[in-house]
């Protein structure tokens, strides 16, 4: 659905994108993550045909975005990170306005708009002024606006930003529904653990380059060069700490009231060996577990610098 190759964007002498590569298959929900200023919005604006790239290629459904922007706009629904919502309109009028802009006849819009309002849980606000909606409701209305022409691809720039936890959950539920409808969705966010639950793939962008892309689990596995092990013995043991510090695959061995925490750079086999060796050495182990890493840890690990590959 999306194929980006060597995409660059410079603003004056500043390079916001320095050779972006990214591909997203049809039907995928793709989480676009990266620190502030990494180039997420720039990439999304180029895909949405609102910004011209400096060089490189960005295709949606095989069509170069710069060559046929009109066709691209039929294919995509774009939700920017900042948007205005014409406060003097009522919710229904607002959607009629956008529907009409896409050339959808009134009779069709009359059927479509109640369905869209239902999808984004705003049916009870159909006759309210946009001005009177809460921020979360306005975000949902904006999402409905993106769906008016039934686009295949949704480009959502931080759709959950500024929402309270409850409103974020509501937004997540709507996105899940859109996924089941077969839409391809690119969503940028800083709320990474939430993203992990709903995306099929993530792409991590830093300093204008994609530094890791793949299935959430694969990236997590790749990044788990260092596992954090937690070992609790029947009683604190300076010998166990010394034993662990002596091993080649361990680092940062620390003991606190919860037990011993140790960074471990081996894989499953070596981890099993470590446990067996500790038991053989006579340490009385109560628990030996691996701390779960989540997407937040992965993100921090990756963006700490360097290419994880
Ligand atoms: N119009 C512009 N003129 C000059 N620099 C710009 C312009 N737009 C963006 N930039 C710069 O390009 C870089 C990438 O910005 P972009 O908005 O794409 O980042 P982002 O990853 O979306 O960040 P955030 O998470 O903060 O929204 C930033 O350093 C930004 O300051």
TrEMBL record:
Protein name: ABC transporter ATP-binding protein
Keywords: ATP-binding, Nucleotide-binding, Transport
Keyword Transport set for record: yes
Species, as recorded: Paenibacillus aurantius
Superkingdom to which the source organism belongs: Bacteria
SUPFAM superfamilies per UniProt: P-loop containing nucleoside triphosphate hydrolases (SSF52540)
SMART domains reported for this sequence: AAA (SM00382)
InterPro entries: AAA+_ATPase, ABC_transporter-like_ATP-bd, DrrA1/2-like_C, P-loop_NTPase
Lineage summary: Bacteria, Bacillati, Bacillota, Bacilli, Bacillales
Similarity field: Belongs to the ABC transporter superfamily.
UniProt KW Protein biosynthesis keyword: no
Any one GO MF annotation of this record: ATP hydrolysis activity
Domain ABC transporter: 2-232
TM regions (residue ranges): none
């Amino acid at each position: 659905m999306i194929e980006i190759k060597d995409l660059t964007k410079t603003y004056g002498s500043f390079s916001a994108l320095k050779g972006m590569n990214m591909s997203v298959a049809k039907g995928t929900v793709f989480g676009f993550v990266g620190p502030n200023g990494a180039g997420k919005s720039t990439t999304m604006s180029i895909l949405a045909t609102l910004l011209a790239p400096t060089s490189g290629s960005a295709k949606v459904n095989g069509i170069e975005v710069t060559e046929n922007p009109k066709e691209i706009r039929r294919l995509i629904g774009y939700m920017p990170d900042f948007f205005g919502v014409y406060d003097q309109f009522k919710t229904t009028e607002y959607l009629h306005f956008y529907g009409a802009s896409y050339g959808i006849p009134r009779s069709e819009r009359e059927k479509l708009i109640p369905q869209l309002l239902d999808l984004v849980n705003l049916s009870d606000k159909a006759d309210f002024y946009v001005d009177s909606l809460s921020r979360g409701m306005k975000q949902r209305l904006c999402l409905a606006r993106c769906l008016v022409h039934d686009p295949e691809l949704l480009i959502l720039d931080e759709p959950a930003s500024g929402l309270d936890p409850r409103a974020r959950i509501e937004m997540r539920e709507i996105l899940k529904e859109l996924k089941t409808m077969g839409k391809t969705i690119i969503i940028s966010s800083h709320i990474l653990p939430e993203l992990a639950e709903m995306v099929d793939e993530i792409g991590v962008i830093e300093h204008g380059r994609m530094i890791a892309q793949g299935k959430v689990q694969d990236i997590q596995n790749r990044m788990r060069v260092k596992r954090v092990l937690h070992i609790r013995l029947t009683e604190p043991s300076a010998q166990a700490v010394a034993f662990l510090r002596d091993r080649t695959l361990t680092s940062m061995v620390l003991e606190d009231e919860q037990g011993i925490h140790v960074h471990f750079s081996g894989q499953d086999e070596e981890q099993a060996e470590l446990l067996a060796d500790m038991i053989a050495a006579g340490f009385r182990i109560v628990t030996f577990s691996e701390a779960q890493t989540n997407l937040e840890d992965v993100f921090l690990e990756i963006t700490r610098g360097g290419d994880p590959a």
